[in-house]
Amino acid sequence: MSIQKKKKHMAFTLYTIIQTAILCTNAIAVLHEERFLSKIGWGVDQGVGGFGDDPGVRAQILNLIRSVRTVMRVPLIIVNSACIILLLLFG
Amino acid sequence: MEYTAAQSGFRQQHNMRLRNSSMDGSDGSQLFDDTSATGPGAQGVYRNQQAGPQAAGGLPGQSLLSDPMSNLAMAYGSSLASQGREMVDKNLDRFIPISKLKYYFAVDTVYVGKKLGILVFPYMHENWEVSYQQDIPVAPRFDVNAPDLYIPTMGFITYILVAGLALGTQNRFSPELLGVQASSALVWLIMEVLAVLLSLYLVTVNTDLTTIDLLAFSGYKYVGMILGVVAGLLFGKLAYYLSLLWCCAAIFVFMIRTLRLKLLSEAAAEGKLVRGARNQLRMYLTMSIAAAQPVFMYWLTYHLVR
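The joint structure predicted for all components is written out below.
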């Protein structure tokens, strides 16, 4: 019983990294701009403020969300479709 | 991947031998044998490289080289192989900078000995700065503070072997478990490096720490883990906890002293108290990176020592 518990706990493979990356990128990409981000003050127009050399953590996070959503939109469509097809075929 | 390539290479050689012995009586047509030798070469470079010399060596008594068609086929096959190798080298160099990696492996015995000593006992070492030579950091052979990749790589491999040994003494060993240990440790390492990269991006630290430097720093904790597990195997659980405690404290001090010079601004790095939210954030970042090391050290070894 303890052996099974340990194996389930430690069975990290490189495949889980790919899964984690896809899931996290999907999570960032589905944050809707006007329904959600602007409501909590994280919109695109609310981040760019300081031009000094201290953008701050909040501005960096907003930049990151915006750039992930812009850059990864099309590749995510392709990767998600491939995942769906592979999971349908191979379970 | 090399394992399956070797397997397929052996299988192709076996098929070649079978086909050869069956064809020997009837015709012995060289053309059929040779295209089967170079046929799979179009599929993959590695298999061709392995099957080619093996097939050529495994056909005793066949006058392979006298036939012009076989010459042509072999020349075509070898040109395919060299083209494939060029393409692989060129593309690999685009993704993994091989020349930069060579810098990290330029070590010698004296450096390794001193570095291992600093990793276990960093309290007497005074000068933690990396010396530069015309804007490029000096090779690890000449400066004991420069990060290298030799110790982390060897440490990782030794950790996997020691884990296998530890599992073996508890009768829990099986060859798949080695692969599981290796891949899970690798995954934790990659996730740690990605987390550090993400937090460095968020705090906008202007530093010259490259990704490979971070990989090297994250790999230094394997030394402490190996010492802890070996002590636990030899002397029991108490020795494991004591040596792990010692190594955790040593790695903590080592990371803080090394990262302080790279992440913090110069005034703060010299020990003066600099006010400001940014410097405070950087200090927190340094402390959390250093504090994550003992956590990982314990997490990756406690299941090995019972």
